[in-house]
Amino acid sequence: MKKMIIVASIVFLIALSIAFYILSDDQSEAASVTFTHQPTISENHLSNKKYFESSIKLNAIGDLLIHSSVYRDARTSEGYDFNPIFEDIKYYLKHADITFANQETILGGTEIGLSSYPRFNTPQELGATLRDSGVDIVSMANNHTLDRGEQAIMNATNYLNNLGIKYVGAYQNEADRNKARIIEKKGIAVGFLAYTYGTNGLPVPTGKDYLVNLIDENKILNDIEQLKSKTDFIVVSMHFGNEYQPLPNDEQVVLAELLTNNGADVIIGHHPHVLQPVDWIASDDGHKKFVAYSLGNFLSGQIGTERLIGSIMQIELTKSISPNNKFSYTVSNAKMMPTYNHYQNFRNFKIVPLVEAEQYRLSNADQWFQKTKELIQTYTDNVEVVPYLE
After folding, report:
1. Cα pseudo-dihedral 211, 217, 223, 228, rounded to 10
2. What phi and psi, each to the nearest 5 degrees, are found at residue 222?
3. What percent of the chain has pLDDT over 70?
4. 3-state helix vs strand vs coil in the chain, percent to 5
5. What does the pLDDT look like over 70-80, one tens digit per residue?
6. For 309-318, how does the pLDDT look when each residue is reduced to its tens digit (9 = 90+)?
């Protein structure tokens, strides 16, 4: 038995030695092989220069001036619901990469008591409807910002923060004001600023200038300068002009030219409560900038057809990077879609495309559309006035 074990062990060792020798010999041969055709890289992807271009659509709407007739119409057994008012128009608001609105009346909510003209306070539920309609950012800088005091501003900004809607032009504190309002879509960063001519004689509390941005040329130019390095485009909302006047005043024109020559790419005007013309401004650097002097009322309880016609503004913002790493920025393809703020006996409020307003008791809606088109194009034909935004 012992002899068999010894023999088997010897045989195993001999077999193991032979296998090791063969394996070592194969590896040596493999190591000595040389390739006659070395693989080559036909294209250096790291150094190959590419052309980049991206475009986004920016939509904007005018004054959300919520009179008591509007919020009474939105009243439900559980609170307030503004969704039915926006049902026929929200598709066109959402059909953009960024949508901006002028929240003229403060969203202070029922906690401090609702109110109407001359010192407004609006149900916060309107904010939820704006969010569901595609609104990304609202201006709060207007002559009604201080209507219900600091608490209303705090209520409104807290609520908007909870909704995820950005606000600009009124702030909770200095740190909040110093936080840049920037929205980035498709690789394009857009910065927003907002200012108002005044607050209806209500004084800004001492030491709390952050509660509302007032129009101050030096401050605006400084704010624009601070945004330049952080953004590709700058949009400035200006609450200015004369109420109910179809043409901008000299101050509006001068300010629009000043801001566009110092870095603003788009000016969105509010306050007149009626539509005013749009225009292109050639800045000193040769770029074309766009200004809508007033987008009119989008939703209100005011009386008079001109005050019930507003518009959705749409502009295209394009960023390009050439193969030699040169950046270029273009504002183009301006469109305006007129809207109509319908109601009957201050009930059943609804915002609809102006071309459909005949169904909502507006006689000669097609003529109103044509008249509105001519007004919008007073200064330039290089804006398309459309019945519907695609």
Report:
1. 150
2. -65, -40
3. 87
4. 30, 30, 40
5. 999 999 999 99
6. 999 999 999 9
β-partners of residue 344 are 347
Residue ranges of the chain with per-residue pLDDT less than 70: 1-49
Q: Under 8 Å CB-to-CB from 17, ≥6 apart: which residues?
A: none
Map out the domains of the chain as residue ranges.
52-385
CA 16 → CA 21, 24, 71, distances in Å? Answer: 9, 12, 94
Residue 331 in contact with residue 288, Cβ under 8 Å? Answer: yes
Q: Which CATH superfamily is domain 52-385 in?
A: Metallo-dependent phosphatases (3.60.21.10)
Strand partners, 236: 193, 267
CA distance 268 to 312: 11
Burial annotation 301-310 (CB, 10 A radius, 16+ → b, else e): bbeebbbbbb
CB contact at 8 A, 222 and 193:
no
